[in-house]
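Q: Is it fine to ask for two folds in a single conversation?
A: Yes, each is treated on its own. Send the first.
Q: Here.
A: Result:
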Amino acid sequence: MSAFADLSSLDLQRIWNSVHGRVVHGEKITLGVIELDPDSHVPEHQHENEQLGMCLSGSLVFRVADESRELRPGDTWSISGNVPHEVHVGPEGAVVIDVFVPTRDDWREAERVEPRKPRWP
């Protein structure tokens, strides 16, 4: 198995309704390039994984615990494990990078879907 892959060669997976990702799993870390559909909503949830991320394109309103902020390309977030958070995506959709420690093992079996034209910049 090679240490390298082209992002477009990775399976597109359904993470949530209206949220799809191409995911790379390491031994201790998961990296996802996540495509969020326009005007979609990721409901409040929490997980044991620490999560870091950055908006690559589009916009979203991200709420972490009691703090909300509108994010645009270049903006980042940091979420400790087990902290509730949710996302409202802007009218143009968004593409983000999410990194999780430990790995998002629940994503390993996420449904594979038909590839579509990537929306990343």
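Q: Second one now.
A: Result:
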Amino acid sequence: MARVIVFDVNETLLDLGALDPEFARIFGDAAARQAWFQQVLQSAFVSTITGAYADFGAIGMGALDMLAARRGISLADDDREAVRVGMRTLPSHPDAREALMRLRESGLRLATLTNSTAQVGEAQITNAGLRDLFEQTLSADTVRRLKPAPEPYRMAAEKMGVPIGDMRLVAAHAWDIAGALRAGCTAAFVGRPGQVLDPLVERPDIVGADLREVADQIVMAETGQRAT
């Protein structure tokens, strides 16, 4: 039984689509935001695999420079600042608060676990109006290893005071689900648009189209309570 439920933040709880207008302004193409975030993830994985740590904010700005270079665009300092501020002030997905309240009211303990620094992660959850629902906001930066390396998941279980097998990670990314499962957690996948599970990774026991579906399944699995 996983009485502690830990949430990924970017894309799982918060809507990165809110950055699209800035990317449309800077690059003339709102879809550039998706290309940027894919580069962020690629650079984060390289950092983790090679053991040359960089924090997620620095990786994000580096990825922005790479995207600009690829597209032959010269970035202004104001452009970088707009993306940096935008990441701290992302809105939550419409289903987030209701789903989180359902879990809390069922007696489950909630926390976040993000690759962003602790300061940014705290600002994101506070600005999105969700901070009151979480016991802790945790950051992979604490252990200087980014998800999906095992250290962040182990740190989260330790901070929450439970064995790692008693913690469930909720995420909208196949790579995060893989990292959690292989670190010893259970997991739940949120099928946000465009997100799919990796067929080469064991399937989590909970999969839903949105956070409401996932929350109902978690409550049933962990407490035996059915959705009302």
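Q: Anything structural to flag on that second result?
A: Two points. Residues 160 and 210 are 25 Å apart (CA to CA). Strands lie at 4-7, 109-114, 136-139, 167-171, 186-190, 206-208.
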